[in-house]
TrEMBL record:
Database matches in InterPro entries: GP_PDE_dom, PLC-like_Pdiesterase_TIM-brl
PANTHER family: GLYCEROPHOSPHODIESTER PHOSPHODIESTERASE, CYTOPLASMIC (PTHR46211:SF1), GLYCEROPHOSPHORYL DIESTER PHOSPHODIESTERASE (PTHR46211)
Superkingdom of origin organism: Bacteria
Protein name, per record: Glycerophosphodiester phosphodiesterase family protein
Organism: Alkalihalobacterium chitinilyticum
PROSITE patterns noted in UniProt: GP_PDE
Pfam families per the UniProt record, alphabetical: GDPD (PF03009)
The GP-PDE domain, residue ranges: 6-242
């Protein structure tokens, strides 16, 4: 049987050992033979794409309130690492441009999960697309979102950037739905869909990548199912299991 290379994406960087979505977490992940890094993108009040997961600041920074209600200068006054450990106090919320410039020296892909309210879809994509084009990174970028309207609108531009929709629930007749958005990527919560429901998608050429798999047995199951890729907070563990399989 032909060996299938299931990609391993470091979820928010090497987030099991470092504060998520920080440069130190990304740099630690880059030391591993990973296939990609997943990171979350939001807009600041002054419309600059930054890397942070929650729409509010409290969990992973010393700030309070919504990310989009703060300017970049305001956000830069908060530590993005002290919540995890005092030794990471110097970490700040990275800008997308900072990450793109840094990633140029590597070959792995970047999965940008876009997070914005519906009324900011156009502003979000224009800001992100400008940076991708400016830094010549379109062939190494994967755009994903829970906002399927946003993904469909990106696909309608006939862009060369790969896209994917993200879902939590198990979908009924997923292939027809995914194809209706125009994307060929499907990121799903691993426990919510059976192998038999995913196999037809892969046979139809859809790239399927379950998230966020941190359990060793589930990793083995995913690799044995030969999915396109997985997202994990433990990429170092996943790489070892992939090698063993």
């Amino acid at each position: 049987m032909k060996k299938v290379h299931t990609e391993v994406f470091a979820h928010r960087g090497l987030s099991s050992l470092y504060p998520e979505n920080t440069m130190i977490a990304f740099k630690a992940a880059a030391k591993l033979p990973i296939d990609g890094i997943e990171l979350d993108v939001q807009l600041t009040k002054d419309k600059i794409p930054v890397i942070i997961h929650d729409v509010t600041l409290e969990r992973t920074t010393e700030g309070k309130g919504m990310v989009r209600d703060h300017t970049l200068d305001q956000l830069m006054t908060y530590s993005a690492g002290a919540w995890y450990s005092e030794q990471f106090r110097q970490e700040r919320i990275p800008t997308l441009e900072e990450v793109l410039i840094w990633a140029k020296d590597y070959t792995f892909r970047l999965n940008l999960e876009l997070k914005c309210p519906s009324w900011e879809r156009k502003e979000m994509w224009e800001a992100v697309k400008h940076l991708i084009d400016h830094h010549g990174m379109s062939d190494r970028i994967l755009i994903s979102s829970f906002d399927h309207v946003l993904i469909a609108s990106i696909e309608q531009e006939a862009t060369t950037v790969e896209t994917a929709v993200i879902v939590v629930a198990g979908l009924f007749k997923p292939l027809s739905y995914i194809q209706s958005t125009g994307t060929r990527g499907f990121h799903y919560f691993f426990p919510m869909m059976l192998d038999g429901e995913i196999k037809p998608l892969m046979e139809a050429g859809i790239s399927v990548r379950p998230y966020t798999i941190n359990d060793n047995q589930m990793m083995k199951q995913a690799f044995q199912s030969r999915v396109t890729g997985i997202f994990t907070d433990y990429p170092h563990v996943a790489l070892q299991i992939r090698e063993e399989i």
